[in-house]
Amino acid sequence: xxxxxxxxxxxxxxxxxxxxxxxxxxxxxxxxxxxxxxxxxxxxxxxxxxxxxxxxxxxxxxxxxxxxxxxxxxxxxxxxxxxxxxxxxxxxxxxxxxxxxxxxxxxxxxxxxxxxxxxxxxxxxxxxxxxxxxxxxxxxxxxxxxxxxxxxxxxxxxxxxxxxxxxxxxxxxxxxxxxxxxxxxxxxxxxxxxxxxxxxxxxxxxxxxxxxxxxxxxxxxxxxx
Length: 225
Known about the structure:
Layout: E1 10-12, H1 22-25, E2 29-33, E3 38-43, H2 56-70, E4 77-82, H3 95-99, H4 121-133, E5 136-138, H5 139-143, E6 155-156, E7 167-168, E8 171-176, E9 183-188, E10 206-210
């Protein structure tokens, strides 16, 4: 993480501030505390396809802890990263394909767990609860109300096979409601099924720009060379 040396005041790798869990030892959580806000970066575990400890159960525990965390933060929050969930149908290129996806013909016993990991009804519902109870705003969707089939997704399936052209928005900037009026831009920097701007990854970069707070002090002058 790169930051202006005058701004960063604290680094933490523990989401509950008391004891690390399996998620943090995986390196899935980074918290940076600034004077006026918290910056949280997470790599959410993939939901998987089955009712197993490292699949559905792990993701449920993750979402539960995220819900607890966002309700007790005491500063405005900026939350970014691969959140491994597409919240609404508008966030995937082919909703019917993803909601009916199966692995080797397996169908979970709970209908809400069926479908592509990241687009099951259960995950989407839990993510919605996190946003509403944490008073959080999806920065990209706040600015972009319509579906963008060219550059509205951050993940793309393998360019060969049935996932070609199948895309999802699973990388986010989420901000506290009190920051939403400061959102200037939030963009996906990849486009098209040929993966322009993905730079060899199946994810593209995502950026957020906020305006300065009204009371924010100007940066100190840089020494001349």
